[in-house]
Amino acid sequence: MSIQSKTLLIIGLTLIALIAVLYTASRVIVLGSFAQQEAFTTQQNVERVQGAIDDNLIALEGTTRDWSIWDDTYKYIQTNDQEYFTANLADNTTMTSNRLNLMLFADLDGRIIFQKNFNYLTGELLPNPASLKNHIYNGSPLLRHPNVESSLTGILALPEAPMLIASEPVVHSNSTGPVAGTIIFGRLLDTGQMQSLAATTLLDLTLQPIDTPNMPTEFRDAFTALVQAPAQASPIHVQPLNQSSVAGYTLLSDIYKKPVFILKAEMPRDVYERGQDTIQYYAFTLIIAGVTFGIVVLLLLKTIVLSRLARLNRDTASIAASSNMSGRVAVSGSDELANLGTSMNKMLSALQLSHDELKEGEERYRAVVEQTSEAIFLIDTETQRFIQANASSQILLGYTLDELQHITFDDVLILDKATPTIKLHNTTGSLRLSFERRYRRKDGTIVHVEVSDSHITYGGRDVLCVVARDITDRKRAERILHELAMRDGLTSLYNRREMQRILQEAAERYQRFDLPAALIMIDIDHFKSVNDTYGHNVGDDVLRWISRLLVELVRDGDKVARFGGEELAVILPDTDLDTALEIAERLRRAVATQPFQSDNHPDHTPDDPDSTIPADPLRIPITISLGVAVLNRHIPAIQPLIEAADQALYEAKRNGRNCTVPYHTVATDLHEIR
User: Fold this and answer.
1) Could you tell me if 572 and 587 are in contact, meaning their C-beta atoms sit under 8 angstroms apart?
2) Which of 99, 166, 375, 378 could serve as 61's disulfide partner, Cβ 3.0–4.6 Å?
């Protein structure tokens, strides 16, 4: 056995003995105290989550009270004032700005004056939860407010999803009674809200209903522990899940003071890991002691090995200081030190080769990045500043590299409500799928880009590598194609398919909000004779002329479409029958009083040199027949509406044309035209 082996054996046995003693002592003494600290920290984190939920309830209570202590609300509860409804409740702005999923107004008798369920994230109206009726009745806790200071907040455990609820009495603006009714605002405590709370508290949160069949074992055990815990305001149960995670559990009660959910807050075992680190520090101390012991042994072997080790050290230090990988250490003899020197020289050769290959690879990579047509740039995730950008990035954004390095990513990124917020912090190496963004160039113009990004380590820090492709031309082409798909090729009016879509929206508004809408069906009188007499080119000109005239005459918001052939349609949103008839008559008189004029004479042939251009322009008197129908309880959908307007148009033709006829249900059985 060589001297090196003997020395290593002695030092190794000593270190093993010391580590065994240290590990046993640290497990007993150190980890016990860290376990207590971990439990205390977990309880604090669970209390933070409870505080975040309480903050949400306090904010919701404040919003509800702002609306309930208002003379206008007081008047609306008593008189069902439509001006108040139109100004405050008709659209969804209030619910979106206050992140509300439920607005409910009820009078003293428990009758619901107004109720709306809304998804403020997607902008969609939601059906009223059926189970909510079980909590809204005369005398229910949510509607029982004995005085103006009464208030109720908490969690309502609905089968559809739990909801944060605030109920306030409706009183005058000066906070005086008598109480006129109740306002209830609600915000769903669903997956999205829990994710928001998780982002706020930086914890992994789970909400588990207590009455769920086959409850997971961990929640069943936690529930048992919480129920058996000593009586206190809000017991918390702490349970390590594995070596890296620990969870805290607590019960959440509903507005009836009944426990309905188990809240789980999961977090990394940072305290436990600090305990492990402490053990490692002890081990490191032991290693230092072992090294010291080894030095003593090596001093005894000075005459045998240390002189050669010193020379080996000088050679390696010289190579390291010069950064010259072509240098080599001197090798003499054939023992372990000589073998070590030979191995080091081989390692230096391998490092030199690897360094040369790495440098060549970096040069190839830089050349590819600089020559690619796609913009590639690096962003510091902490400061959001540009670190590097290739030539295509500078062309795309209009900045030089030096200018880019003095601005942040927020200076070029355009975000709106429909655009998800970019997350600069992510797992290193994680690649996200392509998505679309809008960037603002230096000159202020907007460029549409398709982006993919990933987190990498650059210069010892976490950066975001973004690859962007200019898709402005593609987006422009998509908009043009979308517009062409909606329009009629001859008249540039909305086509029949787009007309039916607009009518469907009007029908849905009528069914939801009782907002009327009218449809005018228009037919050009004797249009076939125009084609037969003057030719189809003139007939097409007549169609285009009438189309332009109708578009100019209708109101803003009214839509003109080509239904088919010479039949046109005008869609009038928020319009009753009398107003629709007035508009229809204005259109009819406008067409009848100004004949169509054109220089496109049917008797003139441009290709015939003997054909002469008539001195006077071609004048053709044009009249139209119109049928008018409106959405009502007899005509609640688009197909009956089209059929009703078409039948009224047929009646106008039968009455001699050039007239307007409304559809009346008393004159025609609706079921017959269906």
Assistant:
1) no
2) 166
Strand partners, 59: none
Q: Strands 245-253, 236-240: parallel, antiparallel or unpaired by DSSP?
A: antiparallel
Q: Which pLDDT score is estimated for 572?
A: 94
Q: What integer pLDDT is reported at residue 419 of this predicted model?
A: 55
Q: Are 612 and 623 in contact (CB under 8 A)?
A: no
Is the pLDDT at 293 greater than 80? The verdict is no
Nearest to 545 by CA among 600, 613, 605, 470: 600
pLDDT at site 552: 92
Amino acid letter for position 164: L
Distance CA 246, CA 40 (A): 12
Whether cis (ω within 30° of 0) applies to the bond prior to 602 is no
- pLDDT category at 673 given cuts 50, 70, 90 is very low
Q: Please, are residues 101 and 119 in contact by the beta-carbon 8 Å criterion?
A: yes
Torsion (CA) 639, 644, 647, 649 in degrees, nearest 10? -100
Three-class HEC string of 136-186: CCCCCCCCCCCCCCCCEEEEECCCCCCEEEEEEEEECCCCCCCCCEEEEEE
Split at pLDDT 50, 70, 90, the class of 18 is confident
**Helices (H), ranges, 229-335:** 270-300, 307-322
Alpha-carbon gap, residue 465 to 42, rounded angstroms: 36
Q: What's the rounded Cα separation, in Å, for the pair 570 and 558?
A: 7
Dmax of the chain from CA atoms?
A: 129
- How does pLDDT run across 140-171, given as a tens digit for each residue? 999 999 999 999 999 998 888 899 999 999 99
Q: Which long-range contacts (CB under 8 A, 24 or more apart) does 635-642 make?
A: 635/663, 635/665, 635/670, 636/507, 636/510, 636/511, 637/507, 638/500, 638/503, 638/504, 638/506, 638/507, 639/674, 640/670, 640/673, 640/674, 641/503, 641/507, 641/519, 642/503, 642/519, 642/521
Q: Lowest-confidence range among 242-246, 416-420, 557-561?
A: 416-420
Collect all residues with Cβ–Cβ distance below 8 Å to 621 and sequence separation of at least 6. Answer: 592, 595, 596
Distance in angstroms (rounded) separating the CA atoms of residues 482 and 60: 42
Which of the given ranges, 358-372, 417-431, 450-464, 567-581, has the highest pLDDT on average?
567-581
Give exposure, 428-463, as e/b (b: 16+ Cβ within 10 Å).
eeeeeeeeebbbeeeeeeebbbbbebbbeeeeeebb
Distance, in Å, from the CA atom of 629 to the CA atom of 625, rounded to the nearest integer, reads 14
Residues 263 and 53: their CA atoms lie apart, in Å, by: 11
Distance CA 132, CA 11 (A): 75
Extract the tokens encoding 646: 């078409």
pLDDT of 3 reads: 59
DSSP-derived pairing of the beta strands 624-630 and 660-662: parallel
Residue 355 corresponds to which tokens in the numbers above?
Answer: 């360094």
Residue 412 tokens, joined = 């070029």
Q: What length is written for the chain?
A: 674
How is residue 15 written in tokens? Answer: 């270190």
